[in-house]
Amino acid sequence: QDTVERTDVAIVGAGPAGLWAMFEAGVIGLDCVTIDALDRAGGQCTELYPDKPIYDIPAVPRCSAQELVDRLLEQCAPFGFPIYLGERAETLARSGERWRLTTSAGRTIDAAAVLIAAGNGAFVPQRVALPEAERFEGNGLHYAVREAERFKGRRVLIAGGGDSALDWALALRGVAAHVTLLHRRVAYRAAPATANAVMAAHAAGQIDLVTGTLEALHESHGALRGARVKTLDGVRELEFDDLIALFGLVPDLGPLANWDVDARAGRIPVDACRYETALPGVFAIGDIALYDNKQKLILSAFHESSLALRKAFAYARPDTQRTHVHSSYDSALKQKLETG
Ligand code: FAD
């Protein structure tokens, strides 16, 4: 891609802070574009605790984290703002009075203001903690499965004990020549129904189960060919063509650490009135924002989004004095939200 997309506000992160910022941008009449490194919106809510109940959202006595995200998406849908998923924000540079942001997909966004709503950073897969692992990445060692067919007829070792490891063990058993599931403990961290399905597949001879941890990876003719595994009662050698390590995701500030926003230990200092960083027109909201008495709560993320957006308005429309209208009396907003 080599086109430049122009917008009022570029939002980095589609967690609760970024999603509420999209809605608020629409309410005050700004355009926005949101990007998220993950392939779905929702940030920590969707990635870390989708089924857990949340009790401290005002006027919502109880909802699951995924339900909260679904409601936020529904709330901003009438504005039709794009959310680019699976794209990481890479660089930020001044362009006259505006900002240029580039993404890992080659997109360039030209914005009057930037809202960094990046939580703890982009989630990246937790990697195999062996020194030789890195050189096998893309050459036998995988941290995600994009298409099952890629493993057709191959001997696959899946490492991990959560839902995605078990789901892929089940999905690949009819595709791969052989599937082994390796987990460090006997009990899985997956949904009981998934764990039961894996046990049934094991009993039917479709999946081998090994309890243990990876100790060393073996190479043959430049490709990954096997591993030594420390089991509960000794050591075992496993042979395979592909290792799919699904140990979960860990947050990583990644390229944001190089932005000129004075990031400290993964957080970005802001003033607690406008949530603006050291760069004019660049704001940090939600968990990534750092100020005195900051609380990492969804409620705080909502508040910060709303106030940052109102200041961002001044950058996007420097010649317009914004007048505040309550949503209950805003007939243009009513028209937009009720008729789409
Ligand atoms: P996040 O939710 O972390 O979202 C940030 C997004 O930014 C992510 O999707 C990430 O992929 C993306 N991103 C990061 N870097 C980049 C980049 N360079 N390019 C593109 N995208 C990027 N809070 C409550 O109020 N009540 C609760 O009951 C509650 N329970 C919780 C339970 C658990 C187990 C956890 C872990 C947290 C809980 N929280 C709760 C905290 C709450 O989830 C966070 O405060 C909230 O998710 C912060 O929202 P956010 O949008 O700032 O960040």
From TrEMBL:
Q: How is the cofactor bound?
A: Binds 1 FAD per subunit.
Which Pfam families does UniProt cross-reference here?
Pyr_redox_2
Subunit and partners: Homodimer.
Q: Where does FAD bind?
A: 36, 44, 49, 89, 123, 287, 328
Question: What GO terms are given for molecular function?
Answer: ferredoxin-NADP+ reductase activity; flavin adenine dinucleotide binding; NADP binding
Q: Which organism is it from?
A: Pararobbsia silviterrae
- InterPro entries xrefs: FAD/NAD-bd_sf, FAD/NAD-binding_dom, Fd--NADP_Rdtase_type_2, Ferredoxin-NADP_redctase_2
What is the protein name given in its UniProt record?
Ferredoxin--NADP reductase
Q: Keyword set for this entry?
A: FAD, Flavoprotein, NADP, Oxidoreductase
The similarity annotation says: Belongs to the ferredoxin--NADP reductase type 2 family.
Instruction: Give the E.C. number(s).
Output: 1.18.1.2
Task: Give the reactions, separated by semicolons, that this protein catalyses.
Answer: 2 reduced [2Fe-2S]-[ferredoxin] + NADP(+) + H(+) = 2 oxidized [2Fe-2S]-[ferredoxin] + NADPH
Q: Is Oxidoreductase one of the keywords? A: yes
**Annotated ranges, domain FAD/NAD(P)-binding:** 8-298
Cofactors that this protein relies on: FAD
